Amino acid sequence: GCSAYEPKPNYQTGVATACTKRAYSDMSAIADPSQGLYVDAGGGDAYLLGGTSLAAPVITALYALTHERAGSNSGNSSVQADLYAAPYASGRLTDVTSGANYPSGLIASDCTFSSLTVQCAATNSWDGPTGLGTPNSPTDLYPLNTSWVPQSCVAPFTCGTSSSSSPIGGAGTAPAPVTVNNPGAVTSYTGVSTTIDIHATAPGASSVTYNVTGVPSGVTLSAAAGTVSGTPKHAGVYPVSVSVQTGTQSVGTTFVWTVKQNGYKPKAKPKIAGTAKRGKTLKVSALTWKTLAGVKAAPKVSYQWYLNGKTIKGATKASYKVPNKASYKKKTLTVKIAVKASTYFATYSAKTPATKKIS
Q1: Which one, of 252, 237, 256, 318, lies nearest residue 281 by Cα?
Q2: What does DSSP say about strands 209-213 and 194-197: parallel, antiparallel, or unpaired?
Q3: DSSP letter (8 states) at residue 13
């Protein structure tokens, strides 16, 4: 976004930011909790963290360490000026060119204006959501025209030796990472039993607790099996969130479950068989049914016959004998076929093509 107070710094004057004052961001970093870092909690425990609370201090630490190593203590302004001067020299940063995010006060429709696109969507070079890009390694944040100095050669270390053999934060060992199976996009139908695998792999964990939100009505969680299963009752698009907790870690994943409305459909269009003549019996062709989910079915079908589009009272069977009446001559017959809606299935109805004129 654009600052309401800070003036535009000199290093941003040559950058198209759509801001009259200071523009953000300068850089970006991955913040996915499932790919985060372990933080030593003492006693041999470690926690997997993510989000802005991870990305911001990681970038800040990289800045501080690399510029301390270079003997640069002139503050953030010179660091940023140095970065803006040549962000992609020798592969310093990777330019993020896809994705979008809307700054506070803007909505998607605002970003259709070309002057604001850079504030909403990742593009070539600088953009609001990702800044100049993301660093490839700590050396990418080293000041320009300065040689990289290996860690072991910076005081209080001497080249090849260290004054301490203890790891930072103590000797605790981080537990193996917990992972959760993501099933990807799921599609099913109402009335069809469905089971989805969301099991967690948690090496060494004494207990695993699942929490699932957003599943369709009729579906429940089986923590023992690591699944969600059941018979969805209502069609819709369901964003599902799965979180798993152990004694030291919390990870999660999301997926979209699309439930389609089930129903019945004949394999062929219904039609009337027989000769359209007074005194003759006509019959709706036999139909083979299946559900929209592709399963063979035998629904309860109702029939209604029509003469020139008008309902024939009592003509509600698959066959109909044409009365030997003059009033039927030169008229046509049609039949409406229907299957009523039920708990999981939608109504089906169709009309046959009209017969030839009755002779």
Answers
A1: 318
A2: unpaired
A3: T
In whole angstroms, give the CA distance from residue 87 to residue 147: 17
The CA distances from residue 169 to 36, 44, 208, 212, in Å, are: 17, 10, 26, 34
The residue among 103, 123, 109 whose CA lies nearest residue 15 is: 123
Structure tokens at 227: 């699944």
Tens digits of residue pLDDT in 312-328: 999 999 999 999 999 99
Pairing of β 289-291 and β 281-284? unpaired
Residues contacting 11, CB < 8 A, separation 6+: 80, 81, 84, 85
What residue type is 309 in one-letter code? G
Q: What token pair was written down for 295?
A: 């399963």
- Does residue 144 contact residue 79 with C-beta atoms inside 8 Å? no
Give the separation between CA 159 and CA 153, rounded to whole angstroms.
4
CB count, 10 Å around CB of 62? Answer: 19
Measured CA to CA, the distance from residue 5 to residue 122 in angstroms comes to 24
Residues 336, 351: Cα–Cα separation, whole Å: 4
Burial level of 316, CB count in 10 A (0-12/13-18/19+)? middle
**pTM recorded for the entire structure:** 0.51
Given a contact cutoff of 8 angstroms between Cβ atoms, the answer to whether 189 and 291 are in contact is yes
Once rounded to an integer, what is the mean pLDDT over residues 192-218? Answer: 90
In this prediction, residue 292 carries a pLDDT of 92
Give exposure, 71-96, as e/b (b: 16+ Cβ within 10 Å). ebeeeeeebbebbbeebeeeebbbbb
DSSP letter assigned to residue 102: P
* CA dist 170 → 173, 321, 344 (Å): 9, 93, 59
Taking the C-alpha atoms of residue 194 and residue 35, their distance in angstroms, rounded to an integer, is: 30
Whole-angstrom distance, CA of residue 169 vs CA of residue 122: 37
Task: Please write the tens of the pLDDT for every residue from 72-89.
Answer: 554 444 667 777 777 776
